[in-house]
Each structure stands twice: as C-alpha cells, then as structure tokens.
Amino acid sequence: MAETPLAPKGPLAARRVLQLPLVDGFLWVVRISAVVVIVVGAYNSLTSGRLSGQQWRDLIVFGIAQGSIYGLIALGYSMVYGVLRFINFAHGEVFMIGAMTGYYVSSALSGTALWRSAPFAGLFVVLLCCMTMSALVALGLERIAYRPLRGKPRLIPFITAIGASFFLQYTVATLFGVDVKAYPAVPVLDGSISVGGFRILRVHLLVIVAAVVMMIALYFYIEKTRAGRAMRAVAEDQETARLMGIDVDRTIARVFAVGGAMAGAAGLLFGLVFQNVNFFSGFLPGIKAFTSAVLGGIGNILGAMVGGLTLGSVESLGPSLVLSGLDIPAAHQLKDVVAFSALVLVLIFRPTGILGERVGGERG
Amino acid sequence: MALLEIRGLTKVFGGVRAITELDLDVADGEVVSIIGPNGAGKTTVFNIVTGMISPDDGTITFDGTNIVGLRPSQIIQLGIARTFQNVRLFPEMTVRENVMVARHCRTRAGVVGAILRTPSFRREEADTRRRAEEALAFFGTRLVGWRFDTPARSLSYANRRRLEIARAMAAEPKLLFLDEPTAGMNPRETQELTELIRRIRDETGVPVALIEHDMRVVKGVSERVVVLDHGQKIAEGPYREVARDERVIEAYLGRKATA
Amino acid sequence: MADQIVPTDAPVGAGAGLLPAQGVSARRAVTLGLVAGVVAVFVSANGMVSEFAERDVIAELSLGVLWVLMIPLIVGSLAGQAPAVLQGFAAPRPGWRNPAGGALAGLLAAVVMAAFILLIDAVNVRDVLINVRPDLVETEPRLLTFGQGVGAGVALVLAVYAALGALGGALHLLPDRWRRAVVAGVVWLIVMGVLSSLVSQVLRGIQSTTNIWTAPLADALYQGGALTAPAAAVVFVVGAGLYLLLTRPRRTPARVRVRRLPDRSQRIVRVATLAVALLLLGLLPQVLGPFLSDVLNFAGIFLLMALGLNIVVGFAGLLDLGYVAFFAVGAYTAAVLTSPQSSLGVGWIFWAAIPFVVLAAAVAGLLVGTPVLRMRGDYLAIVTLGFGEIARLLFLSDWLKPIFGGAQGIIRVGDVPLAPGVEAGGAQPRLFFYVVFTFVLLAAYISYALQDSRIGRAWMAMREDELVAETMGVNIVAAKLWAFVIGAILAGFGGALFAAKVGSVFPHSFEVIVSITVLVLIIVGGIASVPGVVVGALILVGLPEILREFEEYRFLLYGALLIFMMVRRPEGFIPNTRRVTELHEQELQQDAWLRAKETE
C-alpha cells in the first residue's frame, strides 16, 4: 500500500486548498496585523515620549479602577452563563438601574447630617440600596422573562434578553427621563492620596478596594456556603442536582440575585467615578463587561475579575499606547473601538478566555 | 485493492485511546458489519472516515484517494454517505427537502442561477426533485405521495430511520455507512430493514458498512463481520466463525451472541 | 403518539384531564388582576396616558383613556377564561364564574390603580417620576379618575374596572365564533378610530385619483379626527359581521377553490391577481398623499433591511446584531459617490453608485462573515454587534473624517433620477415610493427565489443541524458567506435609499437600535416568513410614524414585544409554513434511551 498517493488528487485537491485554508489564512492575516499594529504603535508611543511616566501610571490606575467595575458586572454574566449557558444581555441594564438608584438615594441623602458626619456610612447605605434594587430587577427578569423559557434552544432566551434590555432602558427613560443625572459631590472622595509613592485618586482607590472586598466575599459565598455549593452543583448538572434534592429554581433565582447585586454595586461605583448616569449608561459597560467575562473565561468567577482588569487596562492604555503611536488623530475617541476590537478578537481567537473554562464543544 | 482501506487508524480522546492501530477494509459489493460492545469505538470509526473528527494517526484511502483531512462535505462528494445512530434529520424541512439536501454534492447551481431562474437551474432543480423522489420510492409507499411535503418531524420513528437511509442514498454514494439502522425498531420492521440492506447491495451494487447490535441482522446480511473492543479489532471473518471466537464471547462478557 | 397532543398553556396537572375539568381559577384572576394593575399604573406613570389623551378615538373618548380602559377589559377576558383543556375532553361549561373571574381581576387592577391615584394626589412624585403629569388626577381632564375628584374618582375607577373586567369575562359566555366576532368588531373599532387620519386620507385620495365617490364617507365617519358615535356602531357591526361572513361554516377558502381550477385558469387567476396588486400599488402614493407616502418609504427602507436580515437570521439561522453596519456601508458609499461635497466630490448619479454599493456591501459582508464562520448562536450575535459598533465609531471618528465627514456626516446626497429631468428624492415622496417599491420587490423576489433553491435548502439544513448538513455535502463556508453577502447587499440597498431619501448621512443614524428594530420586525412578523416580514415592517415602523405620540414609547414597545413573542409565540404572527427549529424545542428528537447511547 506504499504507493497510495498521500495527497488527494485532481480538482478536489484544489478545493481543499481553497476552502478552509483561505479562511484560516484570512484569520492569520488578522492575527498578524493585530500584533503588528500593537507592536508598532506601542513602540512609537513609548519612544516618542509624548506622555510622562506619571501620566502612564495614571492611565494604568484608571484602567484598573474601570476594570474593577467591569469585573463586578462581568460576574453576573459569568455566573448566569455558568448555570444556564446563556448570555443575559439585559445584565447591563441591571447595572444601569443600580447606578440610577445610586443617584436617587445619594441625592436624597446628600443634604442630611449623615452625609456630612459619616460619609462612608452614608455611602454604605446607598450601596445597600443599589444592590437591593438591582438584585430585585434581576430576580424579576428571571421570573418573568427567562424562567418560562428554561430548556428552550439557546437563542430564544437570548433574544428575550435583548428585548428585556431595551424594555428596561426605555422603562427608565420614560419613567425618569432621558436627561443625564449628575451624582452629588462626595467631599471625602475628592483629591488624591499617595500609596507607596503612587499617586492615586481617592475615588479610584475606593473603587478598587470595594471591588476586591466584594470579590473575596463572593468567592467565599460560592466556595464555602451551602447556597454556593448548590449553585456549583446546578452549574455542573441541573438534573442531577435536582435529584440530589437541590431546589434548582430557587438556586437559579439566587444566582440572578447575587449577580444583580454585584452589578448594582458596580453601578454605584461607576456613578462615583464618572459622576453621571442616564438610561443608556448600561449598554457600553454591559458589552464591555461581557467581553471581560469571556476574556477571563466565562463561567469562571476569578476569570471575571482578571478579564475586567485586563480589559480596563487595555481600554485605558490602548488609545494612547497604540493608536497615538500610529499617528491617528483624536485617538481617545476610539476608546470604544479598542474595547470592541478586543471583544471581537477575543471571541474569535480565544473564546475560552485566559483562565479557560471549558465552553466550546457541544455547548459552543 | 479494496474500495475503502483503513490502515493504522488511531484516535485518542483526552488520554483515552478510542481507536488503536485499526486496519479495516471494505470491498466493492460487500456488506460488512461492525459489532462490539458499547464504547468499543465503532461510531468513532464512522465519524473519522466521514471527516467529522480527524484521526491522530493512520491513513484512510477511499477509491485510491487519501481522504484524511478532507471536510465532510468533500468526503460525501467522493462517495461515502452515512446515517446516524441517533437519527439526525432536518426536522422542520419536508421529507422531500431532506433528501434533496443530500443531492447538494451532485449539483452545482449557484445563487445567481437561482435568482435568474436560468434553464440549467430549472433543469437541475427538476432533476434533484426527481432523484429525491426516486430515492424515497425505494422504500415502497411509506415515504411517497402526500408524505413528500410533510415535515420530517411528523414522521414515525421507523420512518425517520428510513428517511435517513433514503437521504444517504440520494447522494449516490459508492459506499454507505449505516449506524445502527435497526435500533429502536420492532422485530417486523427490523426484518424488513434487513431485507432492504440486502436490496441496496443487490440492486444498486453499493457496498454497505453497518454498525449493528442485533445479531439476527448481522447474521442475515453480512458477508463479513468485524468485531471491535476497546478500539481494537479482535476478530474478523464470516459470522459463523466470529460468533464462535473465544475473544469475541469474552468481549461481550460471556453474553453469547445468539442466533 | 405523543406529538398528537394539542399544545395548550394548561399546567400539566390540569391537562391530565382525569380530574374534572377545571373552571375559572380565582387565584389566577387575582394574579392577573394585580399584574394588570401594575401595567395600568406603569402606562400612566410613564406618560403614555397623558400623551395619548391628545387623540380622540371615538367621539369624546381619547386614546389615552381607551388605553387604560382596555387593560381591565383584556385582563377580565383572560381571567374569565377557563384554562385550556386537552382536545377530546369536554371544556368546562360557561357560567357565572366567567364574568365573576373577570370582575375580580378588574377589581384588583382597580385597587392598584386607586392606590396610585391616592399616592400622586397626596405626594408630589414629579421630581422623580417626571412623566406623572397633573392632568392625570389633579387638573382637567383628570384622565385616570374620569374627570372626577379623587374620592368620587376612586369609587368610579373601582366600579368601571370591575364592570369592564366582568364584561371581558362574560365574553366567554358566548359561543366561540360569536365571541371572536365581537373581538373582531372591537379591533375594527379601535383600528378605524386610531387610524382616522390614515383612513380619511385614503378615502379622499381614492376620490381624487379615481373619481370614485368616497370622500363623503370620510366625513360621515369622522368628526374632528374621531369616529362619531353612530359611525362607531356601524364600524363595530360591519367588523363583527365581516368576521361572521368570512368564517361561515362549510365555506371553501378561495385558495382551495383556485386550486381546483384547471392549470390554465389557475395561471390566469394568478397573473390577474398580480396585475391588480401591481396596479393598486402603483396608485398607492397618489391615494396616500405626500405625508403618508413618505411614511411608507421609510417603512419600505426598513422592510428592505428586514428582508435581508430575514435571509441571514431566518433562512440561515445566523443571528446578526451588527446588521446596521451594512446599512451604513450602503448609505456612506452612495453618499460619497453621489454628493458633490464629499471627499471624492465626483457627484455621480444614484444609479451609477449602485454597483459600488453592491460591491462595498458584499466586501463588508465577507469581512464580517469570514471571522465568525466557526461561531454559533449568541457568541455570533455579540461579535456581530461588536462589528456594528466598530463601524459606527469609525464613521464617527476624526481619524476618518477626511473621508466620511465625522460627526458632520455627508450632505447633499444626490436624488434618484427616474427619467431625464425627473428626480426622486426626499422632497418627492410620491415618486420616491416607486424607487423604494422596486427595490423591495426585488428583495422579496430574491427571498422567494432563494428559499426554494439549492442554496436555500443548504441554509435551512445548516440552520437545523450544521454538522449533519456538512456531512450531507453542504459547503458550510460557502453557504454562510453567501447568506452574509446577500443580506449585506440588501441592507446596502436600504442604506443607499436612505441616504437618497434623507439627502444626507450622519453616523448617529446607524446605532445598534436599528439592528434591533430590524430584528423585532422579522421576529414579530414571523421569522423566515416573507409575508410576515412585510406586515411586520409596515405596522411596526409605519404606525409610530403616523401616530407621532408613539414615537417616544416605540422602543419600549419593541422590547416588550420581543419578550412577549419569545415567551408566547416564537414563530411570529404570520409564521412560515415550517417553524424554525433554531427557535423551537426539538420536541420530537430521539427517544431518550437512544440519547443515552450517544456517549459512545
């Protein structure tokens, strides 16, 4: 059998070359050009010395603060995906509602004695309100829009989630108005402090600390408590979990509530950093948080944070580091293009993420 | 030279050897049964040959061409068509359309032709339709007439299995793979299908390789039986010999294959 | 066989039918009533009621009040309905429970509403809920309390809602066919009332174009934009009567009767129908007048996109959320080539730009389609969404401003020349209609032609089971890319027409919401169904343009519709003959024991 031709012959051979390899070739071109663009741009910016070391550090800190917020939102996507294998497209709106709640509650509190005498206690009250409100909205979503569709093909709940997303956006827009709401000032958070020689805005520090604390709390909740164990069991295998006596419906509702609460907290932090919020504020952070979740490995709690921090930094550094280096004018306008490009590239080339939870295969 | 020659086929799934150094031939005009306990790697062999998964090692030569690395759509064009263990039809398409899809590899009408309704497009479309109906007519009256236009999901289980075979045959294969064609059928239907496999070979001359658990079917149709266990070939030969083989009996854990 | 079971919404236990058939459930009525109350409060608080109060529908009854009153009526009808039973089992006999259930639900809705009325009367909520206007309760016309003060108003609300709920429930006392006739009559009434401007314009337009004496009918029907009371009665009777007439027993549907004719006659009937339809459509812009023609053109452009997306999502099962990118590419290509003030400044005529629109859209389709070949479902959707946003942001950016004009966009896009000296643009909506119409016809023809062809079958097979389709010889790469390219070209046409109609292009016309709108059109109409898409586009895009007060609530309604459709009717209102597996449970997959073996 040694004389068996090893390569296919004739027109088929030509088609074999033409079919996938062409696509693969195209993808390789995309990959290589992405790398080239990044390297050339970064080299040019770094050698040009357009920004000082301090400015770079500021960008990094800002990226981390922003990334922590993305990470907190990403948790909701990740947890829901882990349990139900579907993208809760409306999660960005849950976040926005948290930010809105933060605005109304903090405005109401801003004149009170509590706000002046114990600002952190005041903020804590606001935080609890945001988390509760977002968790309630997430629960309502699950009950009304998603639960009836459990077990349907994945696109059905996904399209429902798109509908829910716009419904929530315009509910807020029509009930509370479309104008941009400015958060009240929080004097304690003004200015910056120095941590180990690193100058850092107080509000950024608060965001990072809060996010880290919440991450750790969530980690223990999922790893160490009964409810967390039930969540992991349901994520692993719903049917078996049900047979083992776990109330699957309640566990799933709890996943939504916890994810929603995290998004609500992120909403408040977002409001404190960016000072304003309107009905459309949830869309972009939502998409970016989803990118973070995928980037870190969707379904993976730690991955959400890693992905968030990575994306936050990429988005913060990308325009100045890469695009300015390529002599693109007004590179900061393209901040979102960088984020979306990251989304597209990650989903195409590494859908399993950095910390890689198994997603592809049958489920993919 | 046999029509299909598999040499040294190896496939590892996450450290588990699904197929080890397998050699297997299918010659023109014969019916080969592949049997073996669950998990022996029978379906994996089909999946590799039809290009759904790629092997780790080995060569597969079909009709003088090495087909390793080709895409499934190219392999059916070369002439290997298959059915699936868990019937996989296009449930929302009609019976006729299901079969017409399989004509895809024998037709070439493009988008422009379809939009302009060129004469060659019309001719090919009519031909596709006719051949699909012919393939369905192979099963007598079960899948013809008003059934042409019913969605595949509304068929009974046995009819779905038949439709799947019709679909594979409409591709004018040179080799037909049937994955447990009688699973889930009652004895009468099984008997009928056994008859049908024989007819396929006798009337169209297409050789058939089938995976089967029902020993009556295996005995009834196959010239040759190949027994797999743990991804390895443990016996090969006519049914009578294989059924007496010690290793085969052992593989089935003493559950002697009854005639 | 299991699949013979008639689909019902009944809980499994109730459906078993071994228990005596259940009547109206009080618990269900309570739940429904509370939900209805929340909905009523919601539409009051978000300003819909006040906004709609401007438009009188029937005599003095405004759309805003009607909007609120419909809620107890509908919920009464739902609550007064006995749960569905399996076919073959006797349905519970109608009785006093039906109106009682409805009344209970209506009453509970009224309680919620009354609480809201008392709240806004006592507290000033307007700082937070900005759309709670004084005309709801405090000042005339006191929409929620029917013109009364708070005390009398609350009592009236309780009484009216309960009565309407009972009326809704009492509908179930009627025999099935009669009940549907009543509903049909009410629908006619509302449609004729709400669309008064459209209907009277059409009636006047018919008179002025064909000299058929129809305008007086408009005067008889409407007074000050609302149906007069006697006219309302006539409309109701005609609507119900038409329904009864069309559903009378043993009436053979026209389609069946045509099919019984010999082949030759069949062809004649078909050609004649087509000719009449074309003639009517040709007269349409004259009948509709400039404003309504403009609305129709707008809907037509969306329809064009919807037909394109229908190929991608409906036929091929690829959920594309970045579809607006192709629309933008078409619009910008047309604008750059036809505007004398663009970066190229060539100022070609529209038709010369069309081949380049096709080319640019096709290239864009390939660029988006190629990287996502291996993706499915929701990941595909998100990536395409990303592409759509990238495209918009690039068009908006200062970086590409020299070419696309950044936020200032491109102005003075050329009109569409129809004949020497005759140009159709946004200012000549009646002429422009023919341009849009031609493209829509082309798109519809392409959809039909491809549906029943080799590539159409490949798409459907791929949508249902990609792996098996490939094993059966379908070249997945080619099929997916063709779907993207054809969808992109149709959207590109839409974009070019949009640019010509508006006369300019700005990046803010190409936001995600456009993609979502188009998705809503095809899902509500009926995915993969061309007639469904047509009706969906005309109603969902056209109506908010005619009823400007809907504009603000358009996306709210779209979102609600998407949720409702997915939960209740994933196949759409005018479904394709075959339902879409991608969106449906594969009820009849394999027997469970076979599935267990799959692991081998």
C-alpha geometry of chain A: globular
- Low-pLDDT runs of 5+ residues of chain B are none
- Helical percent range of chain B? 25-40%
H/E topology pattern of chain A: HHHHHHHEEEHHHHEHHH
Cα-based radius of gyration of chain B, to the nearest Å? 19 Å
Largest sheet of chain A: 2 strands, antiparallel
Helix count, DSSP H or I runs of 4 or more residues of chain A: 14
User: From the coordinates shown, what is the CATH architecture of chain B?
Assistant: 3-Layer(aba) Sandwich
Largest sheet of chain B: 6 strands, mixed
Q: DSSP helix count of chain B?
A: 10
Rounded to the nearest angstrom, the radius of gyration of chain A is 23 Å
The CATH C-level name of chain B is: Alpha Beta
How would you portray this structure in words?
Chain B: Keywords: ATP-binding, Nucleotide-binding, Transport. Chain B: One of its GO terms (cellular component) is plasma membrane. The complex is a heterotrimer of chains A (364), B (259) and C (600). Chain A is mainly alpha-helical and 364 residues long. In chain A, 72% of the residues lie in helices and 3% in strands. Chain A is globular, with a radius of gyration of 23 Å. Chain B is of the alpha/beta class. In chain B, strand 4 (57-62) and strand 5 (65-66) form a beta hairpin. Chain C has a two-stranded antiparallel sheet with strand order 1-2. Chain C has a two-stranded antiparallel sheet with strand order 3-4. Chain C starts with 11 loop residues before the first helix and ends with a helix. Among the domains of chain C are: 23-173, no CATH class; 288-548, Orthogonal Bundle (ABC transporter involved in vitamin B12 uptake, BtuC), CATH 1.10.3470. The chains are: A mainly alpha (364), B alpha/beta (259), C mainly alpha (600). At the A-C interface, helix 2, helix 7, helix 12 and helix 14 of A face helix 15, helix 21 and helix 23 of C.
Keywords:
heterotrimer; A: mainly alpha; two-stranded antiparallel ribbon; 14 helices; 4 strands; B: 259 residues; alpha/beta; Rossmann fold; 4-stranded antiparallel sheet; 10 strands; 22% strand; globular
Short description:
By secondary structure, chain B is an alpha/beta fold. Chain B is 38% helix and 22% strand.
